[in-house]
Amino acid sequence: MILINLLPHREVARKRRREAFQASLFASFLVGLIIAGVIYWWLQMLIADQQGRNQFLSREIAVLEGQIKEIATIEEEISALISRQKAVENLQADRNMPVHLLNELVRQLPDGVYVSNFKQSNNTVMMQGVAQSNERVSELLRNLSNNTPWISKPELLEITAANVSVGPKDQRRVASFKMQFTLMRPSEVAKASGASSAKTGVSGEKQP
To answer: Which of 93, 140, 171, 172 is deepest in the core (most CB within 10 A)?
Structure first.
């Protein structure tokens, strides 16, 4: 019987398989490393691209913020100019308000009513006077309330009985009164007149 020793061949085959496994393992490691490197490079490219976009957006936002500040400054300057223009217009209009006040008082004072004093503070006018009777004072209030666009919110503050000398031995009983009202600006009068005209026109259109 012939005996063959196979141990060296088995050892060689085992060694070859081990070397092949190690080679395939090393190759897999290299392939994985290459793939990881490619992925890392691709992610870095994406990050760099996004950072570039972010920087571009930041620059554009800074430019827009500067333009917005310039626009806001221009708007403030325009508002200031409009305010100054309006103040000048109001000042010019207010110069004629005492004239309108005197004209309206002459028109609206009933017979038997006399003004002794009046004082204007801004648009509020305080007026004192005497009347032949309480009815004359009531008539004055009605006239100031309904007959003139230059005066609004007339209010009787005080009315008392008093005696007035009309001769050496002649005294008459009168009503001493104090009232206040608001003197309207020309722009307010024009606006109120326009609204009243529009309302009148609408009422006329509704009539058959």
So the answer is: 140
The pLDDT tens digits for 165-206 are: 766 677 788 889 999 998 888 777 777 666 555 554 444 554
Domain count, the chain: 2
Q: Residues 128, 76: one domain?
A: no
Q: Residue 125: which CATH number?
A: 3.30.1360.10
What is the C-alpha to C-alpha distance for residues 178 and 157, in angstroms, rounded to an integer? 5
Same domain, 85 and 122: no
27's enclosing H/E stretch is: helix 7-94
C-alpha triplet 121, 79, 77: angle, nearest 5°: 125
Cβ neighbors of 96 (< 8 A, separation 6 or more) are: 186
Question: Do the domain assignments include residue 129?
Answer: yes
Q: Which residues pair with 116 in a beta bridge?
A: none
First and final C-alpha spacing in the chain: 141
Question: Do residues 153 and 181 lie in contact, with contact meaning Cβ atoms separated by under 8 Å?
Answer: yes
Q: What backbone phi and psi angles, to 5 degrees, belong to 70?
A: -65, -40
Residues 11, 19 contacting (CB under 8 angstroms):
no
DSSP bridge partners of 126 = 119, 180
User: Using an 8 Å Cβ cutoff, are 183 and 97 in contact?
Assistant: yes
Q: Domain range holding 146?
A: 111-185
Is there a domain that residue 190 lies in? no
